[in-house]
Design goal:
- The structure is a single chain.
- 33% of the residues lie in helices and 15% in strands.
- It is globular and about 65 Å long.
- It folds into 2 domains: 289 residues, Alkaline Phosphatase, subunit A (3-Layer(aba) Sandwich), CATH 3.40.720.10; 142 residues, no CATH class.
- The protein has 14 helices and 14 strands.
- Strand 12 and strand 13 form a beta hairpin.
- The strands form 3 sheets. It has an 8-stranded mixed beta sheet, with helices on both faces. It has a 4-stranded antiparallel beta sheet with strand order 11-12-13-14, with helices on one face.
Length: 507
């Protein structure tokens, strides 16, 4: 009997009935086969999906006062950072990573919240009070959603508060308390290479002083070169300690599914670096690895800000971005296989500063407020109070904080050398670059002046570029709700300060 009638013949009632019975039997057979297949592979499929969606562990390692380009993978001829380089080679190395502000507390506050520093109230300043839970800190969010969270050494701060999670006395202590099978989020905050340094440690370890990298605003003198070598020594000490953490993760089998981020909180503790908006103050090393998801061995040139770290962690943990975050997740960029310039629109960063130290003359508790926009070709800076001293008053006898002396710059052999030789013709220009008062606007043509030493803001040839960048900066600050543009900025000068100041005498 033919199941299907021959072509050209109409179906009769009997044929239709037989066809429908066959179709039902066929569908039942297909359903049973499909069900058996699902039962056979279902467990395996669920296992694969669970593995694919397993939340990563998170390790955030941050050095204190470590600026760009002081890592061997960036080409520095003296400092050796094999463990930072290890993360870069196993993941992604960033060439244009910037902090929100070149001061410890506001920089770290911006990292932990994913917001521009100026949105954090008193947290925009050094040595402040932190209002716990007000700004949606990523460690608290991750902890709420099942992560085991902790910190070691310096996390957020200096100041009063602990928004980065519970503090542990050692790395071993954190991992000893870690519940089995629970994802973790660990903040590894080294105190290196923050001052003070043991003079001569870099030279004693065999560092070639003649090869030490000097910024253009540094005097080329053995005192300065030796000071930079001492800083290098502490960078290397951070790298060794960080390497021990990597080794522990590898030995435990957790490294494959751990996002490792290693960076610094701002530039080196030297004149015109830390607490300044030049690249020497806000440009930092950054490497990120995640062997399970991130293709290795790439170099990315996009402009990123460390405010991007918090939304990246949340996205990796399958959690929504906090609406108040101004940072953007790096996850699409990390999970791609691209190098160079990857994402359209990441062609600039906005940075700024408020009060680092109350370092002005007596009667003035304020800081040196400034904002800047850094593009591929230019750096534009708006100094809101050009009548103030950018690094604090040089007159320790009339300082707001008793005996405060150029208080926004850590005391150091380099600072002392500049001071003692400030009237020498060969040193005066560099002293002025570091400590003299600055105009309301600064503009640097990076194609001709990559170290940002020649301000062309008053040059008519750059009038169009200056106007364009000033407009772009203002628009960004308005969109990001900066009190400097919307009103209320005077509060930055009134927030309590709980620290001290570099003091005279300079020894």
């Amino acid at each position: 009997m033919e199941i299907f009638p021959r072509a050209g013949y109409p179906l009769n009632l009997r044929d239709t009935t037989i066809l429908r019975l066959y179709e039902r039997k066929l569908m039942a057979r297909q359903f049973l086969c499909g069900l058996c297949l699902l039962l056979f592979v279902g467990g395996r499929t669920e296992q694969l999906l669970a593995e694919e969606n397993r939340r990563p562990n998170i390790v955030f390692a941050i050095a204190d006062d470590w600026g760009w380009p002081h890592a061997s993978v960036y080409g520095d001829k003296v400092v050796q950072t094999p463990n930072f380089d290890r993360v870069a080679k196993r993941g992604v190395l960033f060439t244009h990573a910037y902090v929100s502000s070149p001061s410890c507390t506001p920089s770290r506050g911006a990292i932990v919240t994913g917001q521009d520093f100026f949105r954090l109230g008193g947290g925009a300043n050094l040595h402040c009070d932190w209002p716990a839970g007000r700004y949606g800190e990523y460690p608290a969010i991750l902890e709420k959603h099942g992560y085991y969270v902790g910190t070691y050494r310096k996390s957020w701060g200096p100041g009063n508060g602990q928004p980065a999670g519970q503090a542990y006395k050692s790395v071993d202590s954190f991992f000893a308390h870690l519940p089995t099978g629970k994802p973790f989020c660990f903040w590894f905050g080294a105190s290196d290479p923050h001052r003070g340094y043991e003079p001569g440690t870099g030279k004693a370890r065999g560092m070639a002083l003649e090869q030490v990298h000097l910024f253009g605003h540094f005097p080329d003198h053995e005192t300065v070169r030796s000071d930079v070598a001492d800083y290098y020594y502490e960078v290397e000490r951070f790298d060794r300690e960080f390497g021990q953490l990597l080794d522990r993760l590898a030995a435990s089998g957790e490294l494959q599914n751990t996002i490792v981020v290693v960076t610094g909180d701002h530039g080196m503790p030297f004149p015109r670096c830390k607490a300044n908006l030049y690249d020497s103050g806000v440009h930092v090393p950054l490497a990120i690895s995640w062997p399970a998801k991130v293709p290795a061995g790439r170099v990315i040139d996009d402009f990123v800000c460390l405010t991007d770290i918090a939304p990246t962690f949340l996205a990796a943990a399958h959690l929504p971005r906090v609406p108040e975050m101004t940072g953007r997740s790096l996850l699409p960029m990390l999970e791609s296989d691209k190098s160079g310039w990857v994402e359209k629109g990441r062609d600039h960063v906005v940075v700024g500063r408020e009060r680092h130290v109350p370092a002005q003359a007596s009667g003035n508790p304020g800081g040196y407020p400034a904002r800047a926009i850094r593009t591929r070709d230019f750096l534009y800076i708006h100094n809101y109070a050009p009548d103030r001293w950018p690094a604090g008053t040089p007159d320790h006898t009339d300082a707001y904080l008793k005996n405060g002396w150029l208080g926004d710059c850590d005391n150091s052999p380099t600072k002392t050398y500049l001071w003692q030789n400030r009237n020498d013709e060969a040193v005066k220009k560099k002293y002025d670059l570091c400590f003299a008062k600055r105009p309301a606007e600064e503009l640097y043509d990076l194609s001709k002046d990559p170290e940002q030493l020649r301000n062309v803001a008053s040059d008519p040839a750059y009038a169009d570029q200056k106007r364009r960048l000033a407009t772009e900066l203002e628009a960004e600050l308005v969109a990001r709700r900066d009190p400097r543009t919307l009103g209320g900025a005077e509060a930055f000068d009134r927030y309590p300060y709980h620290g001290r100041s570099p003091r005279w005498p300079f020894r």
